[in-house]
C-alpha cells in the first residue's frame, strides 16, 4: 500500500494540463512557478537542491532534496505554502506513535510488522501526520497518527486515478471545482476520507460507508474566529478550559466552528464544542 501523494486535478481530468519543469538556468521564464511562489519557496526551504517544479491548475508542486531527504511541497499561485511530504525511518518516528502501534489490539505486533520507512505529511495549520505501513503477509494497512498519537486512524485501502470511487470524485468536482485531490482512503470502519488543496487551505472531506458526504473541515487560527463565536467561550461555563484546536466545518445543515477544549486542571480530558456562525451552540 503506497502512501505517496495521489494527485487528481478536479475539473481537468484527462485534459493533459500538467506541466513539469526543472529549476535551472535553462528554464524559460514562463515555465517557472511565478515570483510569489519562488520567494515563498526560498523562504520556506533555504538550502533546497535539485528543485523541479510542476504546475497543476492553480497549484505548484516542488520536488527537491533538503538535508538528505526528498520532499514534495505544494503552494498555490499566491505563494501560500499548503503542504509537504517526505520520508523518515520508522526508528525516528515519535515514541508515542511507536508505543501506540506496539500496543495495538487490532494490529498486534506479533502479526503486523511496520515498514522501515514512514511518510510524514505536513500541512498548513495541521499537526504533522505520520503514515506507518504495517504488513501481515499479503495484507497491508496504514496507520495515520499525529506525533502524540492523540489523533489516529487506520486506512485499509488507498485510491488513485481511475480507481477513485466515482461518487466521491463527482461530489468533489461539483463542489470544489478548482481543488486538487491529494489523498483518498478507506478507513477500517468503512468510511472514506479525501484530502485536497482548495484555495488557501488544505482540507479534509469525510464520507460515510455509502459515500454520502458528511462534512468538510480544515483548521483555522483562533485569531481568525469571528468575535460573535469567541464570545461564547467567554462565558463562565468555559472559563476553566483552554482551546486546543479549532476547525472550520461545512455540513449539509450549515457551517460551524469546531473547538477542542482542554480542562486547565485535568489535561487530556478534552471536550468538543460546536458553534455556528451566529454564535449559537450546536448540540447535535
Observed structural traits:
284 residues; mainly beta; Nuclear Transport Factor 2, Chain: A; 19-stranded antiparallel β-sheet; 12% helix; disordered N terminus
Describe the 3D structure:
This protein is mainly beta and 284 residues long. The chain is built from four helices and 19 strands. It has helices at 35-44, 95-102, 166-175, 227-233; strands at residues 8-9, 18-22, 49-56, 59-66, 69-76, 81-89, 113-114, 117-123, 129-136, 139-146, 152-159, 180-187, 192-198, 201-207, 213-219, 241-251, 254-263, 271-276, 281-282. It has a 19-stranded antiparallel beta sheet that branches.
* Highest-level CATH class of the largest domain: Alpha Beta
CATH architecture of the largest domain: Roll
Morphology call: globular
Q: Identify the quaternary structure here.
A: single chain
How far apart the termini lie comes to: 36 Å
Helices and strands, in N-to-C order? EEHEEEEHEEEEEHEEEEHEEEE
Strands, count: 19
Tell me the strand percentage band. over 45%
- Mean pLDDT equals 90
Here the CATH topology of the largest domain equals Nuclear Transport Factor 2, Chain: A
Share of helix among residues?
A: 10-25%
Number of continuous helical runs: 4
Amino acid at each position: 500500500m503506497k502512501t505517496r501523494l495521489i494527485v487528481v486535478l478536479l475539473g481537468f481530468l484527462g485534459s493533459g494540463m500538467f506541466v513539469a519543469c526543472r529549476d535551472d538556468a535553462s528554464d524559460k521564464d514562463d515555465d517557472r512557478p511565478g515570483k510569489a511562489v519562488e520567494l515563498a519557496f526560498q523562504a520556506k526551504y533555504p538550502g533546497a537542491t535539485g528543485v523541479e517544479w510542476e504546475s497543476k491548475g492553480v497549484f505548484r508542486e516542488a520536488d527537491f532534496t533538503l538535508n538528505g531527504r526528498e520532499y514534495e511541497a505544494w503552494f498555490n499561485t499566491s505563494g501560500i505554502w499548503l503542504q509537504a511530504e517526505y520520508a523518515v525511518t520508522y526508528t525516528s518516528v515519535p515514541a508515542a506513535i511507536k508505543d501506540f502501534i506496539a500496543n495495538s489490539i487490532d494490529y498486534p505486533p506479533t502479526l503486523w510488522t511496520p515498514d522501515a520507512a514512514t511518510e510524514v505529511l505536513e500541512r498548513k495549520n495541521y499537526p504533522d501526520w505520520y503514515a506507518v505501513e504495517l504488513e501481515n503477509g499479503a495484507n497491508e494497512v496504514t496507520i495515520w497518527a499525529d506525533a502524540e498519537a492523540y489523533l489516529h486512524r487506520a486506512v485499509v485501502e488507498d485510491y488513485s486515478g481511475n480507481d477513485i470511487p466515482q461518487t466521491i470524485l463527482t461530489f468533489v468536482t461539483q463542489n470544489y471545482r478548482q481543488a486538487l485531490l491529494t489523498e483518498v482512503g478507506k478507513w477500517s470502519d468503512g468510511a472514506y476520507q479525501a484530502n485536497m488543496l482548495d484555495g488557501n487551505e488544505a482540507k479534509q472531506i469525510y464520507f460515510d460507508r455509502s459515500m454520502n458526504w458528511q462534512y468538510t473541515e480544515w483548521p483555522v487560527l483562533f485569531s481568525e474566529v469571528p468575535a460573535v463565536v469567541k464570545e461564547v467561550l467567554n462565558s463562565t461555563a468555559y472559563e476553566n478550559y483552554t482551546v486546543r484546536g479549532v476547525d472550520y466545518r461545512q455540513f449539509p445543515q450549515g457551517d460551524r466552528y469546531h473547538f477542542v477544549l482542554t480542562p486547565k486542571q485535568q489535561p487530556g480530558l478534552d471536550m468538543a464544542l460546536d458553534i455556528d456562525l451566529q454564535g449559537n451552540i450546536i448540540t447535535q
